[in-house]
């Protein structure tokens, strides 16, 4: 396993609780839209066994042509050891990346794509939207729906409806409004539905989409194949 050590070159406050850490791109490090990586703090591999409390699975919120690796995360006042350390790291601090992969690249199948996310899960979709803006080939249109009860919505400069780009963006702050819109969007029986959020959020969305006629192969999750059966067992069985 190759470990890429790199430095933080910028820290952006996206909202009072959400930060984006922009990292220098190590030589040989590559990724595509929808990628995730293991993000580790200094000392995680200092002992005989890795210190898992210093490692998190994170989405990369930037594209390669932005020349920085973006890691966007929510850090609350009461937080884990990992988040507490991360909160106090300054520009120039060292971090590590490894096991980078993508489960949610744009599926260019001449269909409508629906991006359903909760809170900072929107970070996973940011590079997909930018990739679509740069190259809309074989994608009919994209509709993003994000729920964040904090009302501190992120990336609003990118997630802004643009008719000429065939892109629609919606932000809601209540579960009732969110799930009502999901039901309405599911009227598109041929669409592709990307879902990013907590496991509970995934389960609830999948149940609602299936209830309204959406099939497993139309639902895209940011999960490794070995974990997919926990969420979409019907698809695995086919």
TrEMBL record:
<dbReference type="InterPro" id="IPR017938">
    <property type="entry name" value="Riboflavin_synthase-like_b-brl"/>
</dbReference>
<dbReference type="InterPro" id="IPR039261">
    <property type="entry name" value="FNR_nucleotide-bd"/>
</dbReference>
<protein>
    <recommendedName>
        <fullName>Dihydropteridine reductase</fullName>
    </recommendedName>
</protein>
């Amino acid at each position: 396993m190759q470990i890429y050590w790199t430095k933080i070159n910028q820290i952006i406050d996206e909202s009072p609780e959400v930060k984006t850490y922009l990292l220098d791109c190590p030589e040989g490090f590559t990724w595509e839209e929808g990628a995730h990586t293991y993000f580790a703090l200094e000392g995680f591999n200092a002992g005989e066994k890795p210190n898992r409390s210093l490692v998190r699975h994170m989405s990369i919120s930037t594209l390669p042509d932005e020349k920085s690796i973006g890691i966007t995360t929510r850090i609350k006042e009461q937080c884990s050891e990992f988040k507490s350390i991360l909160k106090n790291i300054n520009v120039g601090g060292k971090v590590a990346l490894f096991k980078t992969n993508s489960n949610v690249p744009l599926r260019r199948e001449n269909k409508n794509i629906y991006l359903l996310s909760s809170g900072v899960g929107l970070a996973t979709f940011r590079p997909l939207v930018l990739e679509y803006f740069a190259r809309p080939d074989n994608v009919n249109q994209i509709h993003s729906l994000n729920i964040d009860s904090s009302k501190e919505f992120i990336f609003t400069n990118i997630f802004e409806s643009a008719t000429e780009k065939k892109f629609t963006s919606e932000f809601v702050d209540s579960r009732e409004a969110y799930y009502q819109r999901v039901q309405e969007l599911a009227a598109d029986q041929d669409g592709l539905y990307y879902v990013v959020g907590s496991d509970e959020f995934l389960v609830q969305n999948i149940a609602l989409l299936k209830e309204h006629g959406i099939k497993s192969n139309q639902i895209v999750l940011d999960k490794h194949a070995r974990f997919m059966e926990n969420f979409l067992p019907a698809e695995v069985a086919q």
